[in-house]
Amino acid sequence: MKSTIIIASAIIAAAIGGSSVLLSYSTAQAEANRLNAFFSFLERAANQKDSSGETQLQALSSGVVRSISKGFESGFNRPSDKDKKKLDEYLEDISALPLSDVQLVADGNTSEKVIGLVTNNTQKPISDIKLNVIYRNQDGGLIDVASSFTSIDGNLLPGKQFGFAIDRRYGNSSDSDSDLAAKKAASVDVSIASLRTSL
Predict the structure, then answer these.
(1) Which tens digits make up the pLDDT trace of 125-137?
(2) pTM for the complete prediction?
(3) CB 122 within 8 Å of CB 158
(4) Nearest Cα to 192, choosing from 126, 97, 117, 122?
(5) How many CB atoms lie within 10 A of CB 98?
(6) Half-sphere exposure of residue 99, counting CA atoms within 13 Å on the CB side?
(7) Which residues pair with 132 in a beta bridge?
(8) Strands 126-136 and 142-149
(9) Which stretch of DSSP H or E encloses residue 43?
């Protein structure tokens, strides 16, 4: 009885193993058939031309290139007339805010201050004025830069002036006099970098 069970088990194991091999072979054969069909399609796409003289592969690649080009173009659209008008108004507002009485003054042995006035010659209240400062040495060479928002409490109304002060620390008390002198600015250039209007 035991030998019959062992023989039956061996037959079942051989059947399972054989069907696995056949299944693996048929799966591999199906995959090979699919690959052959795909390569045949590619060969036809690369060789057969349509009425315009293009192959399917050329038409596909042209379509992809057109699609990518349109995507890039849409990301870099030219500004609309409305956007251009807003930019022109913004630049006009900046040019209508002259800076005057700009001075560079010492503020101790290791720091200095840029002071001056901003006048609002626009017809709008202005706030959040950001100033850029370029610090130069005796030869006109660049030694430092800074950006600072003015601390206007509320808005700078049309026709009004506002005084600003921008501090710059250029050394420490432990620095030598020659190091401090080399770091000290001889002149400054101040300009308005940005602003906010309230109309």
Answers:
(1) 998 899 999 999 9
(2) 0.58
(3) yes
(4) 97
(5) 12
(6) 20
(7) 147, 191
(8) antiparallel
(9) helix 2-47
One-letter identity of residue 98: P
Residue 165 DSSP symbol: E
Residue 139 DSSP class? T
Distance CA 107, CA 45 (A): 78
* Cα distance between residue 59 and residue 37, in whole Å: 20
Which residues neighbour 39 within 8 Å (Cβ) at sequence distance 6 or greater? Answer: none
Distance CA(147)–CA(165), nearest Å, equals 12
Q: For the purposes of burial, counting CB atoms within 10 Å of the CB of 171, is it exposed (0-12), middle (13-18) or buried (19 or more)? A: middle
Task: Spell out where the chain has E strands.
Answer: 99-106, 111-119, 126-136, 142-149, 161-169, 187-197
CB 159 within 8 A of CB 121: yes
**What gap in Å lies between CA 199 and CA 193, rounded to an integer?**
19
120-173: pLDDT as tens digits: 999 999 988 999 999 999 999 999 999 988 877 788 999 999 999 999 999 998
C-alpha 99: how far from chain center: 32
The CA distance from 166 to 123, in Å, is 27
3-state secondary structure of 171: coil
Q: How far apart are the first and last CA of the chain?
A: 103
* Token code pair at residue 50: 């349509």
Return the number of other C-beta atoms located less than 10 Å from residue 73's C-beta: 10
